[in-house]
Every structure is written in structure tokens, then in C-alpha cells.
Amino acid sequence: MFKITDRVDYVGKIDWQLRTFHGEQLTTNRGSSYNSYLIKDKKNVLIDTVWNPFSKEFIDNLEKAIGLKNIDYVIALHAEPDHSGALPYLMELIPDVPVYCTANGIKSLKGYYHKDWNFVPVKTGDVLDLGDSKITFVEATMLHWPDQLMAYFDKDEILFSSDAFGQHFATEFMYDDAKKIDMSELLFEAIKYYANIVAPYSSRVTQKLEEIKGFNLPVKIVAPSHGVMWRENPNLILEKYAKWADSYKEDQITIIYDTMYGSTRRMAECIAEGIRAVTPETTVKLFHFATADNSDVITEAFRSKAILVGSPTYNSGILSSIAALLEELKGMRLSGKKAAAFGSYGWAPISTKVIAKMLSDANFELMEPDNVKASWNPTEEAIKECVEFGKKFAEFAK
Ligand code: FEO
Fold this sequence. Notes:
Blueprint: E1 2-3, E2 8-10, E3 13-15, E4 20-21, E5 26-27, E6 32-34, E7 37-40, E8 44-47, H1 55-65, E9 73-75, H2 81-84, H3 87-93, E10 99-101, H4 103-113, E11 119-121, E12 127-129, E13 134-139, E14 149-153, E15 158-162, H5 183-198, H6 202-215, E16 221-224, H7 234-244, E17 250-257, H8 263-278, E18 283-288, H9 294-303, E19 304-310, H10 320-332, E20 338-345, H11 351-361, E21 365-375, H12 380-397
Parallel strand pairs: 8-9, 9-10, 10-11, 15-16, 17-18, 17-19, 19-20, 20-21
Antiparallel strand pairs: 1-2, 2-7, 3-6, 4-5, 7-8, 12-13, 13-14, 14-15
Helix pairs in contact: 5-9, 6-7, 8-12, 10-11
The protein binds MU-OXO-diiron.
């Protein structure tokens, strides 16, 4: 627990040990935090709780910080269990306290915990009066769940933004201060979070940022539900989100492949050589998806202007790691990115057709021809063809 302002305490939990999130779906190599905030005025408000394994510690801390009986309102910005996990234990102890959330939040919380707490549904523009200050609610539907809500605390000009603007980043110093934390680590975790969690809802992000701007509310601190609070430069993350939501791309080409005996790997390396020959300024990165950190690779694909995806033909299809990659890319609903396929085969050149089709379904613009293939162990001629394919792709991706 620590003080953020005279009226607002941090009562969340920094989780140094977390290494995966959403089950095993997302890697969290720098841990995370479950941010919960306590606002003290004539009325006292708790915003969100923590993940279930930390419930006891959370409630004990809350008792010390304010005394549970002094909590007047609970706000559940988001029903996902990483933030609502301690709620059932808390509500056992303070069953009559109103729980403010969206109508969708009520559905999700009831769905998870099968309890009919004293819910108060709120929508954009609704206000909770705390005596000398107030909280204004802003719905954040589908950022990234239907129930999501933000809350603006007028007295200290804090926007409690729920998952948006968050990062899975455990740190002792919970602010965006370059003197205390490594900003490149922080910004990597912020874009990784965006790419892996928020990207499918980019059009909503754009709308929401416009809406927030339209309120003309001064924001001194953006306080998300994970990771550091943006206090030194709250606009930085708002500006980053505006860019990331708008068909974001850097001058980078990412080559992602799987391989059985090294033929498709060799093709990847030769394609990279071709790209470097034409656009040496472009960052080119290669990843063996079966052994790489998949969430980091997804982040690199998100940053790229173009990607190449390769697999050998396997059982008349593609290797399962590449199938998983393509499924993930489809779900991200990216726009403005280019792509092509490559891969080796023994007796049936099928993999590149499958990959090209899946890339097209995932909204990538395909180069023509959309693939290069090589049989068995690539010959010198096949190697040259891959280099030429890389050169052509570099031109296409310009
Ligand atoms: Fe951090 Fe969507 O929960």
C-alpha cells in the first residue's frame, strides 16, 4: 500500500512471480500488478480488487488502511477475475455496500460468482458524489470486455482507466518516471499489452480517445489496472494508443517460421538476405515460432509493416505452431499490413497455399506471387530464388 495523493491510496498487489496470463496464453516475463485504489473523502470508495490468490492479503491490508466498515462504495471497473477475484471475500464482510459497475459488469460478475450483491448499474456521464469531490463514469465497452468502465476522480484529476493503458510490468516504483524505471522496458510492455490484448478493438480505442478528449477533463494521472501509473507524462500513453490504434507500423519486416530439418529456416534466412539487399534501413527480425516467446513475436508482428510466414508441408497442411500463429493474427484484426508465405515440402507443395489463404483471411495484403517454395533440402537455385523473393518483398513492403 502507498499514498498516491492525500486522498488516494494504492491498495493493489504487485505480482513479481506471474509469468503467464489468460491461462497460458500470454507471457508476462516482467510480472504484473493488480491495481486497486482507495479514495478517501466524506465517502470512501474502493476501485477494483485483486486476483483471487491475493485475496486475504488484500483484505487484511484494506482493514489496516481504512477499516472495512468505512468503505461506502465499491466500484468494479471490470469483472475479469484478475480484478474481481477478491470481491466475493470482501462482499462476505461488507454485504450491503453498493457495487457500482456497468449493466454488462453485473452480468459478468453474477456469471462468475453467482451472487446478487447490491449492484448499482452506471453508464457514461453518471456521477458518484463523495461529498467534496465526485467520480464521473465513462463506459469503455470492449476495451477489452463488454463490461469495461473508466472512472474520473475530479479532485485529483485521475483517470482510472481499467485495462486500457496498462502493462504487465512489476516494479517497486509504480510511475512512469525515467529516473526510476527503464522506459524502454515499460514501453515494450505497454505495446506488448496493446498488441496481445487490445489490438482487436482498435476502432473502439480511436472512438474512446476522441470521446475522452471531447470531455475536456484535465488528466494529471492515468491510473490503469495493471502496471505503472502515467503521472510524469500522462499524454504519452494516450498518444501511443492513438498511434497503435491507427494501422500502426514501423519500418520492420518480421519473418516467422517453423522448421523440421532446417530447410524452411534456410529459406527464411535467404529471404532476409534479399530484404537487406534492397532496404538495408528496414529492421528485419526472424523468429522460430515453436521455440520463441509467442506473445513477444505477436508484438513484433504488430510493430511490422509486413510479415513473412513459413512452414514446411506437414500432413497435407502446416505445422501446428504456425497454425496457432495464424489463428492469433486473424483474431487481432490488423489492418494496413503486407505479407507473403514460404516453405519447404517433400512431395506435395501445400503449406504455402494454406498460409497464404490464412494470411488473406487475417486481412493481410498479399504480394503476387504470394509465396515461394523449395523441395526437400533447397538447392543453390532454390536459395537464389528465396533471395530474389526477399528482394521483391522488400520492394512490395516499401
Ligand atoms: Fe486485467 Fe481484462 O483484466
